[in-house]
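Work package 3, deliverable 3.1, input record:
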Amino acid sequence: MDTLIPLLTIFMLAVFVGFEVITKVPPLLHTPLMSGSNAISGIAIIGAILSTASPNRLTVILGFAALVLATINVVGGFMVTNRMLSMFRKRD
Amino acid sequence: MNTVTVNLIYLVASVLFILGIRGLTHPRTAVRGNMLGASGMLLAIVATLLDNQVFGSGMSSFGLIIAGVVLGSAIGATLALKIQMTAMPEMVALLNAFGGGASALVAGAVLVGTEPTTQSTVATVASGIIGSVTFTGSFVAFDKLRGLVLPDAPVTFPGQQPLNFFLALVAVGFGVWLVADPDATAAYVAIVAVGSLLGVLLTISIGGADMPVAIALLNSYSGLAAASTGFVLSNDILIITGSLVGASGIILTRIMCKAMNRSLVNVLVGAIGSTDTKTEDADAIYEGRVKRTSAEEVAILLDTAKRVVFVPGYGLAVSQAQHQLRDLATMLESRGVEVEYAIHPVAGRMPGHMNVLLAEADVDYDKLKEMDHINPTFGQTDVSIVIGANDIVNPEARTNPSSPIAGMPILDVDKSMSVIVIKRSLSPGFAGIPNPLFAGDNTLMLFGDGKQVMLDLLAAVKENE
């Protein structure tokens, strides 16, 4: 239980940072915000890599499935966000 | 690499994520922001691969990891490059599903692979519930958006809410069992099964036009699932990024609900759009008052206009008319007409949907105006052209307190000199109510498919040159 309090502290502070930063995103960019933040939430990929490296067979199977899903999420999310954002141009 | 170095790199990656999202506050810095986020992710992945636990796990494990990354990257890249801009809500729904699913799977993998503590088991329960709700809920949203199996309208049945509540209790009950006996993996399977069912039931009751709320909420869930998995692994970076995404989804959900003047609960139980349309009401409003027009007439009207505002709705996405719309706008601008676009926060099927479509058609983002910004200017607008929008321009929201959309902020197009409504028919919008705007003294209806009407208008305006 000794790690719980530091982790909860980090969680709460990150929520506040999130609120501060994200309220400033204009409605114009709300779709890229969703797909981009979604790509970031694919961070579970780290847990998936660690699990796939485990000696336990069942853990490896679950970890591998998670790894594929998380990678789709990360790669698909960042690429589609990039594709969208590069369309937002100012014409002169 | 030892744990300290890996954790330091995770810290750098977390900072990059925050800076990346901050970049999204302006279209000029947004591309770079997304790149920062992606580099943060790459850094975190490389650090994990070089972690002693992973690097020292032997060639076969390492090979499997690389195989998984290659496979996932290929699928992800194909999706990202192939998807049409009009199908972006479906894409985001899919990505949400994968993110939530991955979190629930990781929590399960850790449960069977390590000696759990109370903290990690409680977090595993949270991960399992939130992750599986996100997974199946997002697939239901995807299905509804694509129009595959489930109807666009809310699917409701008697006792649905008590049943959902009961299922949530059952999931928590299995959670308590798992915390009491962490070796009972069957309890985790049960949690995921109940969570999956709950995800389906919670989402089928949400109607098509309420999808912006559902997608934003599922986005938030996918973040919270990742944060819970962070507590399972006692891993800071998962907690930080998960809570960032959770916050983002909640903020968007709140904005969407406000833009419809409805509570989140009201949206979740599908209280709107499920009622049958009262056709007699519609006849009373429309009878003898609806004026039909032609592309030629509109071209004459546009000939003398100084300021024109386009008001896009979901129908624009359906007919894929954004490029033709842009062509018409460019032609008007070349004659010195001031052209702007009025974007309602819930126009389309996800937050910001219309902006993406118009950006794809190469419309300058400075011309895409938010509701609060453009509403005061309708009084000085000669012609407002509504394309495939309905409820978001319905003056009933302002005038009729008993209307299902009463109090919803709308675009005040009826205040402009002339209103042209491009629509297939007089059929009601998602709220299922008639729209007095269509019978307004200054309104002309131009019936037809959005794209075809735009082409006709283009030709007619060119003719007048």
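The CA atoms of residues 209 and 345 of chain B lie 12 Å apart.
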